[in-house]
Amino acid sequence: MKLTVLGRYGPFPAPGGACSSYLVEAPAVPGKDREHDAKVRLVFDLGAGALSRLLMFCPLTEVDAILLSHLHSDHISDMFVLRYALEQLHKRGVQVPTPLTVIAPSSPEYEFRSLASSGTFNMVRAEDGMKLRFGALSITLHEMFHPVPTFGFDILENDAVTAYAYGEEKPKKRLFYTGDTGMFPGLYSLVKGASVLLADTNLLSHEKTTEFAAHLTAKEAGSLAKRAGVGRLICTHIWGGSPVEENLLLEAKTNFPAAMLAEEGRQYIIE
Asked: CB of 204 within 8 A of CB of 168?
């Protein structure tokens, strides 16, 4: 499984950056997935500026599905540009995947209806505990803690699924993406043992003014990674308003020395 960071900022991008978006690639299953293609390619969120980044790594004809953690603009704004692109390409005779499968929360309803209105997307309503299969990937959706319905994605590659089912040592090739979330009691058990935790770290500790903040602090993300025994912590959803990266990383490293910041355009092998 390969993770490519297309955008790492929120709720708006830093100059030259893009908002939350990630490309995940894994082996296809012969006879079940698109013919003559050895991979499945999933996009997780598509925030401002992310579509052009996606096109650097993957043509639209090869996207199998898009999973939206939630319907805030910094995670979906380029979906509307994508819709226009698919419509125009189709008119010009390009064999693009329409309708393209999109899994997303059904609320806020006006955002969901807007995405569904043209028929370009096959909108599938996300639910807590929903299980999905794409090629070698098995994905489970888990509701997070955020002002609107938001889902984290627990992603296993196929050979890891068997180990998980039979209670063997923690499975390899497991990625957990939190989407946007504040800390809540069940989060630890959800991410426990992940080989890579891709975590919302939008806040520094002094910026958390209430116990029920909508985002994790970098220190909380580091503590979560340590307690849950994850292999790697990649901090993302970084505030785009000013240079905070160095302080974020220092905070995360206080509890998890191996923490790193997501780098746009970088590819990570999940193993």
From this structure: no
